[in-house]
Amino acid sequence: MVERKVGFIKMASEKKTIGDIPEIGVGMIGHAFMGKAHSNAWKKMPYIFWPPAAIPKLISICGIPEESVAEAAKRYGFLEYTTEWKKIINDERIKIVDNVTPNFLHAKLSIEAAKAGKNIICEKPMALNAKEAKEMWDAVKKYGVKNICDYNYRMVPAIVLAKNLIMDGKLGKLFHFRARYLQEWIVDPDFPMIWKLRKADCGSGALGDLGSHIIDLGRFLCGEVKSVMAVTTTFIKERYNEATKKKEKVDVDDAVASVVEFRNGAIGTIEASRFCPGRKNYNYVEINGEKGSIWWDLENMNNLWVFWKEEEPIDTRGFHCVNVTESYHPYYENWWPHGHIIGWEDTFVHTAYHMVNAVINDVELEPMVATFEDGYKAAVICDAILKSSKSGRKEKVVY
Ligand code: SOE
Prior knowledge:
Helix content: 25-40%
Bound molecules: alpha-L-sorbopyranose
Shape: globular
Order of helices and strands: EHEHEHEHEHEHEHHEEEEEEEEEHHE
């Protein structure tokens, strides 16, 4: 029997008898795409990670306009809904606040939730900039609440396996981290103005939306960043605003490319764009080390490709694909038999598992879960990339 490799994950603590599994109240602010993904995760977590530390109870969801949040409450299974976020923050039944609002609301609502003693999940990018992100990190430390910035790709079984291989020295000294996160959905000039294209609402464009994911994976897999040197551009300078019925200037990046130096001596590249026809949700990461290489891509998320320099027999040496679905792979004993793959939405089930486990058992979040500290450090790197794109110089990363 293969020695089961659990890596970092301390699976659900002592197996409870079914009778004494508590419930834990969840309140959600926001109800669009991420609201749907997170609601699915809260409901799915307890029967996948069974028995869970607690069963999430969807107490209330907040959003506007009222008719759409009322429908979301019914669709996702929340007991109640409200158009006033303070009702979520002040509801004693709610122990976890799930902030899935647009980026400009991440700081205010998360800080208020921390003040109210709520444990918090906040979607990425954590804030509009590093200054706001630091205020958020300071708040969760001051009020002592569990906190997750939902860089969900850390919690893909193949990525945790990659982390374990690197931590176990299987790649040896790291030379390169190379990542690109490419989509295609705003390449059409007739695509209208949305909050993800307005600096006041999103902070940055492709950089914060997609680039911050691979920046976080770079920190998680390769280590801290020493400096960046970047270019950004905006291909479509204005878009039609359906509300004002006027053209509006696009004041964020449509694409970013950056060279990255890591403190451990590795160098690499980070590229993010939503102008790549044919690339649907193509998050690609490759790491090269002295003993071998690994690569992964989100569009085939259950596979990790590995190459080992010293692999025997020499005449069959080459990249080979590991289907990361065995019971001894991270998380997988909770899912399905090998080969029965999981999907993008299941990374959020892992987020829900870690948060509930940490709150109920009052333990630290596992290292592969990104916290507000990680959200802040990703924001510092994003700010440095934007600074470099303006200065034309290499910019140091200082936390
Ligand atoms: C952008 O379309 C987006 O939804 C990102 O905002 C998410 O973080 C990413 O996981 C999928 O693409």
